[in-house]
Amino acid sequence: MNERLQSGDSPRVSEILTDFIRTTTGERIYLGDFVDALGARAFGLLQFVFSLPNAAGLGAVPGLSTIFGLPQLVLAAQMILGLRRPWLPGWLQRRSLARQDLVTLLVRSMPYLMRVERVLRPRFLVLSSDLAERLLGIVFLILALIVSLPIPFANQLPAIAMALLALGLIERDGLYVTIGLLVALVSAAIAAAVVIGGVAVIFLILHHVFGGG
Fold first, then answer.
1. 138 band by pLDDT with thresholds 50, 70 and 90
2. Which domain holds residue 94?
3. What is the number of domains present in the chain?
4. Predicted pLDDT at 8
């Protein structure tokens, strides 16, 4: 993080995450310690990190999308309330994952993240203001709810939207916030279509079985 820190710039997400891994020696990483280490940008960083597994397609593993989606719901509610730092209940703070699993996920994601970071810069600042962050908390809440629900094939796109929104907030890049909102609209529409289609199929089956043909 070096050149940016020496020039007075804020460290990039990739730098913060790399330094966190380097300075963490335990076999397991506890969520409470992770929150404490992230500091002022913890909301955006946590939303980004929790989005990674589902954005990478790991949400197809049964139950995994819910594990990462529930903390995002808690964080989104606090963003809406305008809290300055995240607060997590004790049961969430005590949740942990193997350090090696996090390292593997970050190693796979880092090339893509660093590629995105090259074009991230402060612009359209109104979209990353404190008020905007509170309003975007509503979007995070809806997307996290979609991710947390067992909706087939509907987890990855909202997670990608949350990752884009989080990066936009962290780097104060309103363009990425805008792109994230567009992806969020598409993902919400797809999730709604899947749910409506599923309900329609159930009603058709019930009508066929109990409706006398």
1. very high
2. 2-210
3. 1
4. 45
